[in-house]
Amino acid sequence: MGSTPKHLVVVAGEASGDMHAAHLIETIHRLDPSITFSGLGGPKMKAAGVHLHEDLTKMAVVGFWEVVKHYKDIKRIFHLILKKIEEIHVDAVILVDYPGFNLRLARELKKRNIKVIYYISPQVWAWKQKRVHFIKKNVDKMLVLFQFEKNFYADFGVDVHFVGHPLIDTIKVHSAKESFLESKNLSADKLTIGILPGSREKEIENLLPIMLEAAGILGQEFPQVQFLIMKAPTIARPSIERYLQNRSLTCQIVNGNIYDGINASDLCMVASGTATLETAILQKPMVVIYKTSLLTWILAKLFVKIANIGLVNVVAGNRIVPECVQFQATGQKIAGELKNIFTNELKIADIKTNLKSVKESLGPGGASLRAAEEILKTISS
What we know:
Layout: E1 7-12, H1 15-31, E2 36-41, H2 43-47, E3 51-55, H3 64-69, H4 71-87, E4 92-96, H5 99-111, E5 116-119, H6 131-138, E6 141-144, H7 147-155, E7 160-162, H8 167-170, H9 177-183, E8 192-196, H10 201-221, E9 226-231, H11 237-241, E10 251-255, H12 258-264, E11 267-271, H13 274-281, E12 286-290, H14 294-303, H15 311-316, E13 323-325, H16 331-342, H17 345-361, H18 367-380
Parallel strand pairs: 1-2, 1-4, 2-3, 4-5, 5-6, 6-7, 8-9, 8-11, 9-10, 11-12, 12-13
């Protein structure tokens, strides 16, 4: 008789986690087609063959009050996935980022003696560092994207493996700058600034108005400047368009080919997070922007232990691109930082050199394959 096919449960809670989890699942399935998957995630995981119990990406929230407002739904989904896991034989549960939900789930899974693999580490190195002891107790294997994360966890005796960043494989440009801009009725001879306002509705609400204010200031001083707004797949087009009403900007919305849009930009203003790494990999100078509710900001100031908030600067180990954070996140300040970059050839060259170093630190291609191989090794042991 043949052995029973293995079953993995995967839990991802945001658009980026859904994407990375889907690539991981596809890679595991290529290595072992007999493995089956279920869990919580989004459309990309579903397309990769996961039986989804719920689309958790619809619950992607940021900030204290957002979590409070959605608490009942989050609690219901939490107990749903625990119930589903208890009903079937599970070889391991793969948790992808989303720490507020997944770390609590890890604790419940360990009570049930279920193997827990964590892919894409919570940012415990930035805040609540004591959580590393919780992770050591409740997670069997950490698969991390950054070398500094491996060093951090190894210092605490956590079983950790550095796989590199999957964005190195997933970021692909299909159109040359000139042809892409032409397709958007824009000129390749003008300065093009990309706008990446985030993948959550709350980010759009907090960031896009001040980004467009900065665009308006630059547009008045430099009539030849033009703008591309990168619309995340999780954001409805009207959510972007309503902020463009009554603004005299040369601006186009990019939908579905965001990497082509970033590549066609000369520099960008970027919401803090994974988008800063995507922009860095494409070697585009940027200004990082972060703004949240006052309460969330006060709580963050109490707990965050790192000097920089932009992920690209965290990976670099110092501030290689400007950050406009909270009270400094104003149209005037952002416009000034962008102007300081594009009017200074030496600064542009220096930023690009540092961005190249960041890209190299993310490891070679094949991160999903290395993660998949480590997972198969872990569930076989």
